[in-house]
């Protein structure tokens, strides 16, 4: 469903119970803003939360690069626990890692559930402005990596399907504001 360029009345997106709902987009595209709005319907798994939790127990002098592998392991443990829990949940994801979507889709399918995707398609300029607004910036190298990965994902969608996702909703900055909430129905 392509909602890009559409403003208007608020909408509610409906998904089956147990859905793994991945929200993807460039750093600064509005993923966190959207997830905060949607998190009333389901918990959100955010790698930033894991990063901050790991940072809180590490010595201040230790750079994140040293304990990043531990943080990533913790993040995947959290994702696996949520998938196996059988209830719906939201995933904050950059969208550049196809292997992660496939893994999540396989894990969800083992539990009898589906992966659905909300993709925030904003320009690099808009995403960089979003980073400025929040006062937190992704390093240029990381941003460029995410931009290339997201371009690949959008290219895959040109055929109107993504094998690992039961559905895809495309949003931009305007249409993102229309999504008022999500619901998970049996």
Automatic annotation (TrEMBL):
- InterPro entries recorded for this chain? P-loop_NTPase
One Pfam assignment: AAA_33
Which organism was this protein described from? Streptomyces hesseae
- Protein name, per record: ATP/GTP-binding protein
Q: Which domain of life is it from?
A: Bacteria
């Amino acid at each position: 469903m392509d909602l890009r360029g559409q403003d208007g009345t608020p909408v509610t997106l409906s998904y089956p119970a147990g859905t793994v709902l991945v929200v993807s987009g460039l750093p600064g595209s509005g993923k966190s803003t959207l997830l905060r709005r949607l998190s009333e319907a389901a918990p959100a798994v955010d790698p930033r939360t894991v990063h901050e939790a790991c940072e809180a127990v590490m010595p201040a002098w230790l750079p994140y690069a040293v304990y990043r592998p531990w943080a990533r392991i913790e993040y995947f443990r959290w994702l696996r626990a949520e998938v196996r829990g059988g209830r719906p949940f939201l995933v904050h994801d950059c969208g550049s890692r196809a292997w992660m979507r496939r893994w999540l889709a396989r894990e969800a399918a083992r539990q009898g559930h589906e992966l659905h995707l909300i993709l925030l398609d904003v320009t690099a300029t808009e995403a960089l402005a979003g980073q400025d607004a929040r006062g937190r910036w992704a390093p240029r190298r990381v941003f460029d990596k995410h931009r290339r990965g997201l371009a690949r994902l959008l290219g895959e969608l040109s055929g109107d399907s993504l094998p690992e996702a039961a559905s895809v909703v495309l949003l931009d900055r305007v249409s993102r504001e229309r999504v008022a909430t999500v619901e998970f129905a049996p």
